[in-house]
Amino acid sequence: MNNYHNTLSRRDFMKGLGLTTAGLGSLTVASPVFHDLDELSAFKSFETEKRPWWVKERDYLDMTTEVDWDMKKRWPDANYDNFMAHLGPQEALKRIADMTTQRQQNILSDKAGHGLRDYVLGRTGWSTMLALMPLYWSSRELETFDLSPSIPELPVNGTLFLLNNENLNVPKWEGTLEENANMVRSIVRWAGGSTVGFGQIDEKTIKLIFENEASMTPGAPPQQIVFEDVEHPYQTDTKKVIPTKCKYVITTTIREDVDLVRYAPSEINGGTISKAYSQNSSTAVRVNTFLRGIGYNSVASGPAFMVPNVAWAVVTGLGELNRMKSSFTPENGPAIRNTLVFLTDLPLPVTNPIDAGMNRFCYDCGKCAEACPASAINSEREPSWDIVSASDQRGNPVHLNPSLFNNPGHKSWFTNHFACSNYWVESCSMGCGICVSRCVFSKLTPSSIHEVVKGAVATTPVFNSFFVKMDNLFGYNKFSAEDQTDFWDNPDKWQPLSNWKTNY
């Protein structure tokens, strides 16, 4: 016998009452369906991320990008290759050798944006990520740090510095969905994240977890990513195991310095990229440690592992998919290096996809495709279900295999990742980033005129082409070679104190 009084979707119930306003429409729960009206009446309103007024909330998994969940498969990330496999070892090594020679010449001639200090800046940005690489996935690895031998008088072992509810002999934290969500937003932002969203693992979103990852040990087989009915996450040489109970998802944007992307393509912009990747690792370790400390499990995607991070940004409403095949947010445009994703057993609500008119704007814009020196970005007006063609000759591949970098199942502007990566090699840069710097949405949030434009974009797409022309007319987001020395000679101009809002 059914114990529930009646089954009704949350969204249909709210529509039936005529209460689908922005405020009430933000109610979210861990499951997209209430089993009965008693559950609905007992549920306390949850206030989602405060967003600009023009951002509309959509239904669960109803993104502005169409997805065919039947076509979508878990991605074998261990097979990902955007360079070597499309050239063959001999040609690939030749191009890398040419890059090495050119880089040395750039350093010796002190080429603007490519001198010695510029090059070292990019490598400095990676330092934290490399140091934390063994630790970012799960805080369980932190148990390897035991200070007892060096400090015998400690009352407990080295976990004194990573105390949790177990060695404190107290119950784990337990709160309402709203309390948990607010707590997580606070700790994630403290730890280096920006906007925060929440999701869930179900029969569809499980496809947004990679099937495997390449092992960090050269020559070793891939690590399979599996869910098992275990108490804690663990990993071996052949697999990473996530507890089945870790069905709640936390997402957060890791921002880049929106001003410094204008130095692209240069090693200065490379420093911005590498620093943001390192921020992923720092934030992952901090959040995992906190969640473990209050009594819960969690695993993190780190710099770019475990999940297609852009997909989770779109699913949880942090942003929308853009022509560059990355996500952009109403607050920071595409100036985000990564969306950091956590799976946890801490109960959390769900935040729904959004529509800020940004994906639709890409239809009428195309600035990133025009600016791309490798022509790697799709310039067609309409998105497509088709991935890049194997006959595509951008970047002069020997034998292009797009299935190694394009995962079908959604309607988008698929990017030629090989052509993009090849230009990184040709330009001797840590990364390119020209597309991000040219995007109309790469503007400082506090600049009031841009907030007006964003509101118009979201509500009146007829002006989209006009805004693209105005963006070009004002010459936004482009630095000349002479501007490259500004990074070193005029630090106050483009590098305000960290976490301070600016209005340049």
List keywords for this structure.
504 residues, alpha+beta, 4-stranded mixed beta sheet, 15 helices, 31% helix
Describe what is shown at a glance.
With 504 residues, the chain is α+β, with helices and mostly antiparallel strands. It contains 15 helices and 14 strands.
Describe the structure.
With 504 residues, this protein is of the alpha+beta class. The protein has one domain. Helix content is 31%, strand content 10%. The chain contains 15 helices and 14 strands. The chain has helices spanning 10-17, 37-42, 89-108, 116-132, 177-190, 267-293, 309-315, 358-364, 367-371, 417-427, 434-438, 448-459, 464-473, 486-489, 491-494, and strands at residues 8-9, 33-34, 56-57, 196-200, 212-213, 223-228, 234-235, 239-243, 248-255, 298-300, 320-321, 327-328, 336-344, 354-355. The strands form five sheets. Strands 4-9-13-10 form a four-stranded antiparallel β-sheet, with helices on both faces. A four-stranded mixed β-sheet has the order 5-6-8-7, with no helix packed on it. A hairpin with a 5-residue loop joins strand 11 (320-321) and strand 12 (327-328). Helix 4 (116-132) packs parallel to helix 6 (267-293). The termini are far apart. The relative contact order is 0.15.
- Please outline the major beta sheet: 4 strands, antiparallel
Helix percentage? 25-40%
N-end to C-end Cα span: 65 Å
Mean pLDDT: 82
Topology:
Blueprint (H helix, E strand, L loop, with lengths): L7 E2 H8 L15 E2 L2 H6 L13 E2 L31 H20 L7 H17 L44 H14 L5 E5 L11 E2 L9 E6 L5 E2 L3 E5 L4 E8 L11 H27 L4 E3 L8 H7 L4 E2 L5 E2 L7 E9 L9 E2 L2 H7 L2 H5 L45 H11 L6 H5 L9 H12 L4 H10 L12 H4 L1 H4 L10
Parallel strand pairs: 6-8
Antiparallel strand pairs: 1-2, 3-14, 4-9, 5-6, 7-8, 9-13, 10-13, 11-12
Helix pairs in contact: 4-6
